[in-house]
Design goal:
Helices cover 36% and strands 16% of the residues. By secondary structure, it is α/β, with parallel strands linked by helices. A five-stranded parallel beta sheet has the order 3-2-1-9-8, with helices on both faces. Helix 1 packs parallel to helix 2.
Length: 253
């Protein structure tokens, strides 16, 4: 368990097939602030190689288990596809937070490299702590790190205001952003929906700055909130997901 006096902050990004320039924007903001981050990857792109060159960045998996997934038709195929993209990954967050005990058991039994799951969203909760699952026939240990904030969830939360200061409380404070929402400086999901309609059949990953610019918001929005989180938080509190898991496991042995 976390020491109740210890505050641990993590920045995570669900890539969600965003254009490379959006992914690079998020990495640049973190690098400028000298803050580590974890990017959950959905697809191959030149940005993937660029992220690997960032010393403060680690890569995780963002498997899509939903029907019609481009990652594969079965859970095993999806995980195989994602691990082929990021074989060094030790953490995952499931796309759409689609999860089940059967999926956790599959990961425990067949994918020993994956140690951490970050698919449990508890919006605006304080005093969060890691927890462990012992799943499948192997009863292998999987560490779950609940997270407290996500940009698209905040956008629809009653009473939410983007100029609100980040809630940094004792325990885990894990934040999830999407590069496309950061690039849009998204205030409401209407901006993103309008962009997708305008792109029509053009894949999101191919959207240019020119495509996105008409739908960007002047804020305050998601990018402003990210910049404020980076500025207002003691950078010594930030950790990558794998570091949080390692510290938790050292404490609980």
């Amino acid at each position: 368990m976390l020491d109740r006096l210890e505050t641990t902050v993590a920045l995570t990004f669900d890539v969600d097939w965003a254009p490379d320039w959006c992914i690079e924007l998020c990495a640049e903001l973190c690098a400028h602030a000298n803050v580590p981050a974890t990017f959950f990857i959905t697809h191959a792109s030149p940005a993937l190689g660029a992220l690997r060159q960032q010393p403060l960045v680690e890569l995780g998996l963002h498997p899509n288990f939903l029907p019609g997934s481009s990652h594969g038709e079965t859970p095993g195929a999806v995980l195989d596809h994602c691990l082929a993209l990021v074989p060094e990954a030790s953490a995952m967050r499931m796309h759409g937070l689609f999860q089940s005990s059967a999926l956790m058991a599959l990961v425990a039994d067949r994918y020993p490299a994956i140690e951490t799951d970050v698919s449990l969203l508890l919006p605006f909760h304080r005093n969060l702590e890691p927890t462990d699952l012992y799943m499948g026939a192997s009863r292998r240990r999987l560490t779950r790190l609940p997270y407290c904030w996500e940009d698209d969830v905040a956008a629809t939360w009653p009473g939410w205001r983007w100029e609100t200061d980040p809630i940094i409380s004792p325990g885990l404070a894990i934040f999830a952003f999407h590069p496309i929402h950061v690039a849009l400086n998204m205030t409401t999901l209407a901006r993103y929906d309008a962009l997708k309609r305008a792109l029509a059949v053009k894949p999101l990953a191919e959207a240019s700055r020119t495509d996105v610019a008409p739908f960007a918001d002047q804020g305050p929005g998601a990018r402003d909130f990210l910049v404020r989180l980076l500025a207002l938080t003691d950078r010594r509190r930030f950790r990558r997901i794998s570091e949080i898991t390692r510290a938790h496991r050292r404490r609980s042995t």
